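Design a sequence for this backbone.
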């Protein structure tokens, strides 16, 4: 289900000539509600996400850490690869990872596979 959800979201192309505005389809005013998310996900049959969602949102960490982990679980970080799939164009030289400048700036590379990021995580976990 998560893969299908990601696939559907990545099909959306941004229109450069229109004003960008975020709306949430499940609210009459278009305003997002974190409280409604677990019920909505379960109503829509996204059970695997509700488990992750509950785990993340019950963690006793600052809200910004929970938000970060939620975005990580969804794979929704605005990397170059993610933005290009949504129609934003970049110059060739700006597509690379800002840490190693060797690989395309992709979610999995940026957080887990980059040799500089691996070194960072190693230091954090050995601290
Ligand atoms: Zn890198």
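Sequence:
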């Amino acid at each position: 289900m998560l893969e299908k959800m990601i696939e559907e979201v990545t099909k959306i192309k941004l229109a450069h000539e229109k004003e960008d505005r975020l709306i949430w389809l499940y609210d009459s005013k278009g305003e997002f509600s974190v409280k409604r998310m677990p019920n909505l996900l379960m109503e829509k049959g996204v059970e695997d996400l509700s488990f992750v969602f509950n785990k993340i949102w019950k963690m006793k960490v600052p809200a910004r850490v929970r938000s970060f982990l939620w975005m990580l679980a969804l794979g929704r970080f605005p990397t170059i690869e993610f933005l290009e799939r949504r129609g934003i164009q970049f110059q060739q030289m700006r597509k690379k990872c800002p840490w190693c400048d060797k690989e395309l700036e992709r979610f999995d590379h940026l957080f887990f596979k980059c040799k500089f990021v691996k070194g960072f995580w190693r230091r954090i976990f050995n601290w």
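Residues 97, 99-100, 103, 109, 114, 116 surround zinc ion (CB under 6 Å).
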